[in-house]
Write a structure and sequence with these properties.
Layout (H helix, E strand, L loop, with lengths): L21 E2 L6 H11 L3 E5 L4 H12 L2 E3 L13 E5 L1 H8 L5 E7 L2 E6 L5 E2 L25 E2 L7 E2 L6 E5 L1 H7 L4 H4 L6 E2 L20 E2 L2 E2 L1 E4 L2 E2 L11 E8 L3 H4 L6 E7 L7 E9 L3 E11 L6 E13 L6 E16 L2 E15 L6 E2 L25 E16 L4 E21 L9 E28 L2 E29 L25 E22 L2 E22 L4 E22 L5 E12 L14 E12 L6 E18 L7 E21 L2 E16 L3 E2 L2 E4 L8 E4 L3 E2 L11 E10 L8 E10 L2 E2 L7 E2 L2 E11 H4 L6 E8 L7 E4 L3 E4 L4 E9 L1
Parallel strand pairs: 3-6, 14-17
Antiparallel strand pairs: 1-7, 2-4, 5-6, 8-9, 10-16, 11-12, 12-13, 14-15, 16-17, 18-19, 18-48, 19-20, 20-21, 21-22, 22-24, 23-47, 24-25, 25-26, 26-27, 27-28, 28-29, 29-30, 30-31, 31-32, 32-33, 33-34, 34-35, 35-40, 36-39, 37-38, 40-41, 41-44, 42-43, 44-45, 45-48, 46-47
Helix pairs in contact: 2-3
């Protein structure tokens, strides 16, 4: 009798990365048993993409030396699962046969026989095979709270423990348990990222986010979709996202221009290998109503053509008066296995958001962060004008992902995406400090219509080859993106408002263009067109020898920008036109090493660089060079055998150089002698502790400062007393920026989230979750003249599977989630003397049905 050694996670959710393993007995001869057992015990590296089963078995023979015998009709029209990573041949073959209904047994040291599973076969539930690293779909949802592989770190299917830098995955299960409504909520428990201090109040809506929305290791992060930068001004809805990965640290070698703090990569939903049918209706405070559906299935009986359609419709008010959120969206996709070596996936996405729920106005620091004349300004207070403050968005994208495997050594991959967005924002917002009377706030009116479109293409060859005992996974590619923006900006003054007794209706638009009234004394307009182009050529080699993996990569980028703008002050009859063509280039590289011990511990070290273009010239007419980022990172990753968890600890030091700072000899110009430094460490744990318990936890320490600068800044101080007896902020004397902390970057953050299912025999089908988030104090402005206090927020939820108690209700699940359980009033970020209020208690319920 032959025995597979398996580590089973009882009750683990089915999905990508889980597998049903069929084991049969009846081997003939003790000698065959011994030879086969020896073969199965030998660990090898496998890289076999999902494809028709016949092709997968040929690649299995090439990579293992084991011949698999079967009748031709047995494997007809069947497809294999993907296999990647170091594992035994028996484990690899079991993974290939997942979901086919086939079993196998070894007949000799280098041969095996396939057969249809019989009633005597042993069928196990979803399991992770012990020692089988990296066998999950790197674009899939993960299992529970743990993902083992990533495409984002290297653009190859690589176990996270082999990647020499910090990568954190927000799995689909985590997003479902927390019922996230936007990207900010999905990132709340991710190390190294501050997602609360956004440049606008989202009010629980999926409002559009700019490049400065999140701070990642002290720097503004960039957002990518399926490995390519996204410049859309319309946010991707969480209903269309399969997983979210954050790469902390410089990522230019694989992705081109980006900040040294890292990037956020969102993966779109694709057709699933097994049928998926799910519908839901939701409800919550602020009059939220939501409906979704997500359906995936085969189009052809063989399964070579599959589809998926996800859609959402939502309507809600927000915590701010007169601000609402309405959205409908759909994301269809089709996967076509053209032949056993060729695959094509087509993805579309469209969202229409007549009101995006964003409130793009600060409130006075006095009355929010500091005591106001009459207490604290309500979270419901609206600084704008009813009927005028509108955020309308339309966004769409088309993407294809193509792959062709020439042989077991060489694969061609290409991804193309075209996306466009149209936004029309009109708003009245707070512009200055509160007046000395402690009540009067000045305002400004704006209208900002804008259109963007981006075309991106990433083409690469991936090669697997050996040089003696050393294994290589090499990638060589070229990517390109072209971005166009056509924007307008109209401004005029607006009447002051009393923040304690607001009176609306007196604002009359006077922007000086048709339909917006005549120009007034403070009207101003701007028209602009921008075009950005980037071409990058990159190379990477992952070199493996036993437990050691060395990753080397380099990239050359060429970047160009052409901006045209015209500004005018209609009232005064003045007009200015500018045109600024600009081009630059940059070389970035990285090197890193990890060593994985047999018990799952993997220490690593890496050095990586990044770049970001800058426009303009110095006093002598020289074009500014791109900023450069450089990071040293060292850490430990631990993937214990027999325990479904991933632990990460990392320390980092980032320097960003070529930062613009004031020219001491020509104060009206800049020089590139500035520097920003961020250093700290992160600790993270993601674990499916048992079938009933899932946990994520993290701690981040980040010391981010302006380490060199000639700039000066004006501090503001809270002044509760004045000649008029008011409450306001007063300006101080200029001070040097050098040595100051970067504002809106907490030095300390920690979080914990636990989901627990009551064991069988109690109340079957009932789950609870609880989370706590601590955000340390931050400096409110670059002068570091006042701080935003630390805050602690609590989240909780309950889920009930009705089918566990009443079989006829199988597939029906109810869920309620509460964020900011205590309804804490807190401040997320501030400007010179203005602040944003955090989200109040949000209650959201959902009833879903899956069949």
């Amino acid at each position: 009798m032959f025995l597979f050694r398996i580590c089973r996670r009882p009750g683990m959710a089915a999905g990508v990365g889980a597998m049903a393993l069929f084991v049969t007995t009846g081997l003939t001869g003790i000698a065959a048993d011994v030879r086969a057992e020896t073969t199965v015990a030998t660990t090898r590296h496998f890289s076999i993409p999902a494809q028709p089963l016949k092709g997968a078995l040929r690649q299995f023979l090439e990579q293992s030396g084991i011949q698999v015998v079967y009748e031709s009709s047995t494997a007809q029209n069947m497809r294999s699962s993907a296999v990647s990573g170091d594992m035994t041949p028996g484990m690899a073959l079991a993974r290939l046969l997942q979901g086919t209904g086939l079993s196998f047994h070894f007949t000799a040291s280098h041969s095996a026989v396939l057969s249809k599973a019989s009633s005597s076969s042993i069928m196990l539930g979803p399991v992770r095979v012990a020692g089988a690293a990296g066998h999950e779909n790197p674009r899939g949802p993960g299992v529970g709270y743990v993902a083992q592989t990533s495409m984002s770190g290297t653009k190859t299917d690589t176990p996270i423990t082999e990647i020499p830098n910090s990568i954190y995955v927000v799995t689909k299960q985590q997003m479902l348990d927390q019922q996230v409504q936007n990207l900010a909520e999905a990132l709340r428990y991710t190390p190294g990222i501050y997602a609360e201090g956004m440049g606008q109040q989202t009010n629980g809506a999926a409002a559009g986010f700019g490049s400065g929305s999140y701070k990642q290791r002290g720097f503004s992060s960039a957002q990518f979709i399926d490995g390519m930068i996204s410049n859309s001004e319309v946010a991707l809805d969480p209903s269309f996202i399969e997983r979210i990965e954050t790469i902390n640290g410089p990522s230019s070698v694989m992705y081109g221009q980006s900040a040294p703090g890292g990037i956020i990569n969102e993966t779109l939903k694709r057709p699933t290998d097994t049928p998926l049918r799910n519908v839901s209706v939701g409800f919550g405070n602020w009059n939220r109503y939501q409906a979704t559906f997500d359906v995936s299935d085969r189009i052809t009986s063989s399964g070579n053509l599959k589809y998926r359609v996800a859609a959402i419709g939502v309507s809600q008010d927000t915590q701010t008066n007169y601000v609402r959120y309405h959205r409908v969206g759909i994301s269809p996709s089709v996967d076509w296995r053209i032949d056993e070596k060729t695959d094509l996936t087509l993805i579309g996405n469209y969202v229409y958001t007549p009101e995006d729920g964003a409130y793009s106005s600060y409130l006075p620091a006095v009355g929010t962060l500091f005591p106001g004349r009459y207490g604290r300004i309500s979270r419901h207070f609206f600084m704008g004008e009813p009927g005028w403050n509108n955020h309308k968005e339309v966004g769409s994208l088309f993407e294809y992902v193509f792959s062709h495997q020439f042989n077991s050594h060489l694969t061609f991959q290409q991804t193309f995406r075209y996306e466009q967005s149209k936004t029309n924002f009109s708003y009245v917002y707070y512009t200055d400090t509160l007046a000395a009377d402690g009540a009067t706030a000045s305002r400004q009116g704006f209208a900002v219509p804008n259109t963007t479109r981006t075309a991106s293409l990433d083409t690469r060859l991936m090669a697997h080859y050996n040089t003696g005992p050393v294994k290589h996974t090499a990638v060589a590619g070229v990517d390109f993106w072209d971005y166009h923006s056509n924007g307008q900006y109209y401004s005029s003054d607006a009447p002051d408002i009393n923040v304690w007794a607001p009176q609306y209706g007196s604002f009359v638009p006077q922007f000086g263009y048709p339909g917006m009234g005549p120009a007034n004394a403070d009207s101003w307009s701007w028209f602009g067109r921008d075009r950005y182009d980037q071409v990058g050529v990159y190379f990477q080699d992952q070199i493996r020898y036993k437990g050691l993996t060395v990753t080397l990569g380099g990239r050359q980028d060429w970047y160009s920008q052409h901006s045209w703008s015209q500004s005018s002050e209609p009232y005064y009859g003045t007009s200015t036109t500018t045109s600024s063509p600009f081009s630059t280039q940059a070389f970035t590289w990285r090197a890193g090493a990890t060593y994985e011990f047999g018990f799952g511990l993997a220490p690593y070290f890496s050095y990586a660089t990044s770049f970001q273009p800058q426009t303009g010239t110095d006093a002598h007419g020289n074009v500014f060079k791109p900023t450069k980022g450089a990071q040293y990172e060292a850490g430990l990753k631990f993937k214990p055998h027999g325990f479904d968890a991933l632990f990460t600890a990392s320390a980092f030091h980032i320097d960003q150089t070529n930062v613009l700072t004031q020219d001491p000899d020509n104060p009206n110009f800049s020089v590139q002698s500035g520097q920003v430094t961020s250093k700290g460490f992160e600790v993270s744990a993601q674990a499916n502790v048992t079938k009933d318990l899932r946990v994520i936890a993290s701690y981040t320490y980040d010391d981010a400062r302006y380490s060199r600068s000639n700039n000066t800044v004006v501090p503001y101080y809270y002044d509760p007393t004045s000649d008029s007896g008011g409450y306001h902020m007063r300006a101080g004397d200029k001070m040097s920026l050098q040595g100051k902390y970067i504002n809106a970057v907490p030095r300390n953050m920690t979080s914990l989230f636990v989901n627990y299912s009551l064991p069988e025999g109690t109340i079957q089908g009932l789950e609870f979750n609880f989370g706590v988030r601590y955000v340390g104090s931050t400096y409110a402005n670059t002068a570091n003249s006042f701080k935003i206090p630390a805050f602690i927020l609590f989240d909780t939820g309950l889920r009930y599977d009705f089918g566990k108690a009443v079989p006829v209700l199988k597939g029906l699940v109810g869920q309620v989630t509460i964020s900011n359980l205590t309804n804490k009033y807190y401040i997320t970020s501030c400007g010179t003397a203005q602040c944003y209020i955090g989200q109040s208690r949000r209650v959201y319920g959902n009833l879903s049905y899956r069949w």
